[in-house]
Amino acid sequence: NAGVMQNPRHLVRRRGQEARLRCSPMKGHSHVYWYRQLPEEGLKFMVYLQKENIIDESGMPKERFSAEFPKEGPSILRIQQVVRGDSAAYFCASSPLGQVTDTQYFGPGTRLTVL
Amino acid sequence: AQSVTQLDSHVSVSEGTPVLLRCNYSSSYSPSLFWYVQHPNKGLQLLLKYTSAATLVKGINGFEAEFKKSETSFHLTKPSAHMSDAAEYFCVVSEAGGYQIVTFGIGTKLQVIP
Known about the structure:
The structure holds two protein chains of two kinds.
Chain A: E1 5-7, E2 10-13, E3 19-24, E4 31-37, E5 43-50, E6 53-56, E7 65-68, E8 75-79, E9 88-95, E10 105-106, E11 110-114
Parallel strand pairs in A: 2-11
Antiparallel strand pairs in A: 1-3, 3-8, 4-5, 4-9, 5-6, 7-8, 9-10, 9-11
Chain B: E1 3-6, E2 10-14, E3 19-21, E4 23-26, E5 31-38, E6 44-50, E7 56-58, E8 64-68, E9 73-78, E10 87-95, E11 102-104, E12 108-113
Parallel strand pairs in B: 2-12
Antiparallel strand pairs in B: 1-4, 3-9, 5-6, 5-10, 7-8, 8-9, 10-11, 10-12
């Protein structure tokens, strides 16, 4: 059973470009979470999705950021018009039921560098 | 609302000596608590979790943690540090309230000195 997959592992963008980060959850998991880790900081929750639904996006910046988890295919975190402050590691996690006691399984992360 | 405080940003121990990484939490409901480890430029790996069963939880690689409700603590310990334990450790709380949203501590970097 493959773990959570994220691609690309490293992404370099110039200011103003778009960044698309992909996350394939573990097989059988329908709950996906995105986190951002800034240098020297812990992980900050961004958004929680189930298939075709955004459940909680309270941690997502109101502008330029969006997320989706379509019926088919991976979850996508999209950052439009990137700025230097978007440089961070973005982690995706999945869990089977979204319950409080569930373990979230993390992908290896995408490290975004904005030049 | 839930929160997590990791009391030490850096901990340094000698190889073969005990490890103690401290974590205090705040939660309005019965929480689930987790410890994750992150090696440099890697993803996060679950070490152990507490979900209202036994208060002493044993995890992988010889780590364990004890849930103490009266002290709102969930400290991570290991009797004898190994060089491969050098990494960053995150304490995480998840509380009941409809669905699972977790909150991470800021992390503790563990250095193991040969």
